[in-house]
Amino acid sequence: MAVNLNTPGCEIKERRLGSITGYFGTIGDMTRKGCEGCLKNKKRCFTTVSQCSHYEALGQLAAVDDAVIIDHAPVGCSAGQVCFNRIFNLNVSKMIGERGRNFRIMSTDIKESDTVFGGLAKLRKTIRKAYDRYHPSQIYVVTSCVSAIIGEDANSVVEEMQEELGIPIGFAASEGIKSKIWASGYDDYSHAVARTILKDSDERENIINYVGFSPLGKEYIEGFFERLGYKMNFLTARAKTEDYERASKAVASFGQCGAQSSYLCGALEKRFGVKYFQSHFPYGGIGFERFFREVGEYLGKQDEVEEIIREEREKYADRLERVREQLKGKKVFIALGATFAYEYTRIAGELGLGVIHTVAYHYDPRLDNITDERVAAAVDAIESGLENVSTSVNDSQQMETLLTMRNLEKPDVVISRVHETAPWSMKIGIPAVTGSASLNLVGYRALVEFGERIVEELKNKNFVTKLGKNFKSPFTEEYEQLKQLHFLQGGKEDVE
Amino acid sequence: MSNKEENRKQNCGSEQQRVGCALGGIYTALAINNVLPVLHSGPGCQLQSGTVLAKLNGGQNAYPYQETIIPCTDFSEADVIFGGSERFRKVIASSMKYYKTDLIVAVDGCTAEIVGDDIKEVAESFEGSDVPVIYATLPGFKGNNLYGHSQVLKAIIDQFLDGPVEKVEKQVNVWGIVPFYDATWQGTLVGIEKLLKDLGFKPNIIYGRNKGIEEVKKIPQAEWNLLLSPWLDLDIVKKLEKKYQTPFLHFDHVPSGPTETTKLIRAIAEFADLDKEFVEDYIRDGEEEYYYYISRQLASINEGINLPKTFSLIGSAAAAVSTVRFMVNDLGFVPKKVYIVENVPEKHEEAVRNALYDLELEDKDFELVFTDDGGLPAAELLQEETPGEVILGSTWDEVLARDLNATFFPISVPIGPGLIGRKSYFGYTGGVDFFVDFYTRLLEGGRTSI
To answer: Who among A46, A50, A473 is closest to B91 (CB)?
Structure first.
């Protein structure tokens, strides 16, 4: 199964890519099974709150140009967007020197009576209200658990209203119950924009698409592409309709990670033949070299790439040496999203850090590229010797992460980003540093800076040490004594 | 209803949500130490309400049950087909084993309600277990987090509290402050507790630091209940009056600054028949303290600063009444327009209106708008000739204030990512803190006269 832009909704990651949210073992075992198509998901016997695809789809779509989003849902299903309004909207606007405005997400406010009598009339009314208030160039209708369970045919209203208003109206079937993986919401966004604003083109230009959350850190990598004779086109939050329209003219695309970027890159490849690079990410030194060599070969710019690599390597060699010396013998615990978990695992190795365990929130054994190149984690398992690194996939279940962390060797530092691994590790006295999910992680510069950040972190641990001493566990002895590392059914590997 | 009013209440097409859905009611449970909500809802439901009620509302998180460890069935497609009651039962049973908890509140959201999972039956099946289990149905299609808040409190009163008990002299329960939703709830409750103690009472507060199941159990034995809000928790104190014959004093807001704080103290003194001389001494001291601090800052706020005089406000009913009273009665400002954006039930609109216009102001020609559409204020105010030089509201309104070239000051949920700590604008000293924070914004905003 692959990207299919002919249907109103997209296939979820589980079915399209064989993605999983439950695994415990080693990177080698997991990636091998993933490549062979026999990686099985494991269910949990105990779960805590997580995230949903609806939340993510809204946040991505609302940051598209001047779009207005219609949330066909009870009013609370867009309440959390106040957060993404800040991250993907106001902050990114500032980054790109724009004045910025608030997200425009209108709820159809499905009430109890609507669950009985239907809410399509409200959907029409809300679309008209959105148009009257903002006169946007495009509207997206996003469905929810409630509208899906009561069987609303929202897409028919979308088609009808598109005709009435004469502007493109996209549709994203993004009900939270559809997929166990919240990152499926990124696919819903990608599917919707791909069907609504991507444009055919016969021309090719020297453009490389970047698909990601934000253009944060773009100046650095833009410089390298410029030396190869290419300009970057950013399909990130606050991208303009023109940027999406231009994307089909590009020679290649790459993304910030597999979870967020794969579907849109895959759609561009499938529909317009824009090459999708996904086997290597330009993160850290090794990733940077492999990524640019792969790109350089495709573009016929091998010599220029070798020069860039030589320069960058030399520029940071001394600092890197020093950092490695300082971090010798230190060990980390990593908990991040599907791609960054394994990118940071390799980066930790590059810095000379031992990796005790890596938690990924989900895992995609393949991505939406039409070629048969392996995903980055699978490549790394072989090329970077990560075969035997202990890993789990856990749907950001912090109870599981905590249990795993406490049952294994105590790490010197935890690498995570969001989903609250950091506050929980700090509560039990373990320092945490934040990983990046942006172009700020590109190259030797980022590698060295990240290493130096850890060195500084370890110089003064007073805050977490004292926090740890004052920790009052909300958990019972029974939980604290659990030997199993996770709540996966039929997979109770005990720690010896 | 006029056309315009109709338009404002068209019950769909609301944007910029300043409330969570009913499931956000779990934050009321989370504010009571060691009361654990267990969810039968989608995996993202908590996050949606938690973001607006906690994270982006003063950078709050729950404690000790920080959000990511809240048990949840993570309702999925399979549960639609096969039903999720059994999985819910298992998650509750595991929660009892894994968490130190005094009370479990089993709640469900939209999806479980639509497919008809019977959480009452699930909760009741734990009868006799070590940890009591009560339930509350919290589907978002039934109401917002204030509905959820009420449902959770009613569940506690109906399912957890025993029948009538002996009253304890001087004990007073405090209501009307919705934890998390009112970002300043913790600091405010500490302030109210101190005031009541100073006046000789035994305050009983169920939310916040060191407040838990013991305080909850003491609810029936209070001599009276103190309600500090325009409409919220009125149903709760009435319920307690019926079940435990506890009378209540309804003061229509949490007072900030000297004028309203003094009114509250006098109202309490009259209701509880306190010694007049003692109370007036207390008031004199409080007012003196307020004016001492204000007087020490007067010079700098009147030194070449182009001070504004007018404001518009967008917020919850509670925040609106507290803030407008202080802005008008003590700071001498003139309101232009007030938007109440929390879906006040129609039967309470009159009370909110009365509370809001009860001001020491001759010309009360400002407009009050009830709406659930957070996008409406911007749509309207940007068209106004005099929209107000200050916008008091939530973090959603920062952009509006910028576009109006007005000063923004956060007073209502979601106030933004800035950390709240123990801040409160309650009482005499709270008035000082409001004054300080507010004028700091004005001064740092560069409103110079040259």
So the answer is: A46
